[in-house]
Amino acid sequence: MIAVLKRSFVEGEVEVSGAKNAFFPAVACGIALGAKKIKIRNVPKIKDVFVMLEILRELGCSFEFRDEGKELIIFSERIQPRDFSPELFGKIRGSVVIFGSLLSRFGFAKIPMPGGCKIGERPIDQHIKSARAFGFYVEESGGFFVAKGKTSRNVSFTFDIKTVTGTENAILMAIRSKAEINNIAIEPEVQELISYLKRYGVNIRREGDRVLIDGKEDLVCDEVEFELIPDRIEASTWLVLTASVGGRLKVKNVIFEHIEYVLKVLSNCGAKISLAQNSVEIESSDVYEPADIVADSFPAFPTDVQPQICVMLLKSKGISRVVDKIFPNRLSHIDELVKMGAKIELKGGEIIIYPSKIFGSSIRALDLRGAAALSIAGLMAESNSTYLSGFDFIQRGYENFVEKLRSIGGSIEVFEDDKISHFSKESEKMKIEQESKEIFNYVSYTS
Ligand code: EPU
Question: Beta strand 279-283 with 272-276: parallel, antiparallel or unpaired?
């Protein structure tokens, strides 16, 4: 899928959808608790969610959306640990939490390697290590991880590194145990999982980056109901987009504490930020102060906003430095920005960003947040339009991105790849751009 983007200013308001990365632990929590019905409100209609639903179907669940799509009901009474299609399981990373939830509920799980965006090494050694610490026997064979056993009591486990889905899995495995887990990730999605469990009777509490559980072995719930928190990465993306392309925007449905670091960076750089009830208003500036940013575990600056902020920092009046400690190789956007005219160097693990003007070009996104960052670049670029291929990645994590962007004045058209095979020459691009509506079968990305 190709997006054609043109220089735009934005104005108006957007409403943030439910959080992608809160959906997976919500589902896993329902499974681990033994629920026959898992009701989840505020579920974003994005590709990663639909892939997860397909995986659940393979496990024996069915589902339906109710209340005009606002509520998803997963019927999980017939769920059983079955073989998954590795291809489906490997499409997303969030699927990995099925491991902890099945082990917790059935004492057995067999999963292929999870996938997700290609943003560097994404091993699951910590997930396996925690399963072993909780008393499960785990072996890897033929591309599958097979685990079985019963959760031990009185377990103390310490993660070697902070891992979000690893923490979610360990907590899920421990809900019927007496356990202490140290060095946990405390991203809002993990905190939500802890509060869901608390609500359904698990004696669990967090103290800093440690969680203490005193679970009951006979724990079971018939029905669970969750409401997803707003997506902090989507909120941050709209804020950074506005600061980059220029304009004024009200971003609604935001939890301030979840995006505090991003707000601090934007405001230190010179964007005007004001907070109202559950919403943030931002007004851009023509030029920004440079910044030194280290993307790290929550509450630090999120790695999932690293690509987007790199684009904004091109508008700084000095040199900015960005280090991504979580995914140091999350760099696919950099070459593309350089193609657009950006001066960016990669040195000693740092992304060094010089003040630069960027110009419309043909570029390619290779992952979800890269697609968001390069869309921002296309809306910010001077002179020609930007032809962004690989735009489909956006559908993995942003609900109605195109519609929301258009509603605030962003100029974007989206085409299926096979309709535009001759996008290579600039003149042809211009022609296509003018005649696109008649010649090509325009496809809205939500269709
Ligand atoms: N890591 C290991 N071993 C493990 C697990 C992780 O070495 O067993 C390393 C990873 O390679 C990485 C670091 O630990 O360097 C942190 O990875 P983490 O496990 O926290 O990432 P994740 O759980 O796979 C989730 C989000 C990502 C987000 C990261 C970091 C979901 C489904 N995904 O991934 O979201 O970037 O946490 O915050 O929750 C996205 O939404 O675009 C996205 C990639």
Answer: antiparallel
